[in-house]
Amino acid sequence: MAVVLAMAAALWGVGWLMQASLRARAAMLGLLYVVVLGLHVALPEGHPLRENTGGSAAPWLLLGGAVVLVLVYREGLSRLRARAAQRDQAAEPPVTGATFSGEELERYARHITLREIGGPGQKKLKAARVLVVGAGGLGAPVLMYLAAAGVGRIGVIDDDVVDLSNLQRQIIHTDAGQGMPKVFSAQERMAALNPHIDIRPYHRKLTGEIAETLFAEYELIVDGTDSWPTRDLINRAAVATGKPVVSGAISAWEGQVTIYDPVRGAPCMTCVFPDPPAPGMAATCSETGVIGALPGVIGAMMAGEVVKEIAGAGQGLRGRMLIFDALYAETRTIALKRDPSCPVCGPGAAESSDRGGSRNGF
Ligand SMILES: [Zn+2]
Known about the structure:
Layout: H1 2-17, H2 22-42, H3 48-52, H4 58-91, H5 102-107, H6 109-113, H7 118-127, E1 129-133, H8 139-149, E2 153-157, H9 182-193, E3 198-202, H10 208-216, E4 220-223, H11 228-241, E5 245-251, E6 254-260, H12 269-272, H13 285-288, H14 293-311, E7 320-325, E8 330-335, H15 349-359
Parallel strand pairs: 1-2, 1-4, 2-3, 4-5
Antiparallel strand pairs: 5-6, 6-7, 7-8
Helix pairs in contact: 1-2, 8-9, 8-14, 10-11
Bound molecules: zinc ion.
């Protein structure tokens, strides 16, 4: 048997020296195998050729069987890999405009220089689709920084119009834009800042009827709203569609930022705030007042989290909430945990979502 194996090795070596293809060398070995097996079948027992090639066909059949098993296993593996790669391709958004123009390269140069973003991260930003709910205090800086950062498609939904009292902090809107729907005023400024992006304004209220369909078109949701019912609706639709929510909130002198994402282990909003605030406690900016720069600070942090999230840079605020107290210039971060019995993202969510649905009718 050793003689045949030595012959096989010699054939392989000669093939390699002659630069024969892998397939041709494998065919030579296969031929040798067939000849040896043929000898065992054709020649009588005890024939010297049979004695010198292992004595019986059994070890050769075993060897052949083992090789076939290995080949079948490898073929199966490569098919599985091909299928997985196909699935990944289907799941990932197509990287549109995988190349940048010279103008874009210069525009995003400070991002591309960053090791954590670089060219690949900037391409991901260009291919990204982000929906911002609310074009007010938090939405203003988020939208401007996302536009500047080159996020390829930015959706913005808001049914409000620009009011004089907004201009103390909502710096995306202008004095001349008073009375204009906020989404169109925002679109104008964003397009003026970066003409290379696709801006989708939705001048309407986010409702339970459209939330899930709209969310499905985006990979990440930004919550810059200030009403509890809308936040609750965003949370439910995001959980239902499996989208992470970069969420910010401000009141008077204090703001907070976090990422709700139960699909990836972080809590949803209901895990953290299970009950709606008591009537009269959910004061909006118009009731309590707000320092104008605060939404700038919190909104810029939210935009930073979005960029990190898309580029896969650093550590996001999943499972953590950053709280900023502007009056005393202090920040602190608290840990957030998922509620295993959460009615929105917990195991019993299927039945309770029906009840939630009617609550979201506004
Ligand atoms: Zn939850």
